[in-house]
Write a structure and sequence with these properties.
Layout lengths: L22 H32 L1 H12 L1 H29 L5 H29 L1
InterPro entries: SQR/QFR_C/D (IPR034804), Succ_DH_cyt_bsu_CS (IPR018495), Succ_DH_cytb556 (IPR014314), SuccDH_FuR_B_TM-su (IPR000701)
Membrane topology: Multi-pass membrane protein
GO molecular function: electron transfer activity; metal ion binding
């Protein structure tokens, strides 16, 4: 009975109050969020295709909405989520090969993921407006 009352010193698990977030952890969370956002964006693509298949009136309604400020912001967010998720996938592919596990390499790849996704999204939208 005396043994059961002896408290053992066990290590505490890190939790949100004591665990300091770092860039690669935030990128992992963002990668998962953008993956979920791509599901919603794919539903928008399905709505657009169904509208195109049903006729001119439905298609014009969807085109009007996508041409509005809200629609363009949604499309901008979808573009960024797509590019960010793509670059994050390439980053994971590099890790699958066995490269980029050093602390400096991980941080640099995370920074490149952020910068690359923003820059490529802006370039895609510039090209889209130039072609339009």
């Amino acid at each position: 009975m005396a043994d059961s009352q002896v408290r053992t010193q066990r290590p505490l698990s890190p939790h949100i109050q004591i665990f300091r977030p770092y860039l690669t952890m935030m990128m992992s969370i963002t990668h998962r969020i953008t993956g979920g956002a791509l599901y919603v964006g794919t539903l928008l693509l399905v709505v657009w295709l169904l509208a195109a298949a049903t006729g001119r009136s439905g298609y014009e309604h969807v085109q009007w909405f996508m041409g509005s400020i809200i629609g363009r912001l949604i499309l901008l967010g979808y573009t960024w989520a797509l590019i960010h998720h793509l670059i994050g996938g390439v980053r994971h592919l590099v890790w699958d090969v066995g490269l980029g596990f050093g602390p400096e390499a991980r941080e640099n790849m995370a920074r490149l993921n952020i910068i690359g996704s923003v820059v490529l999204t802006i370039l895609i939208w510039i090209v889209a407006y130039a072609v339009r």
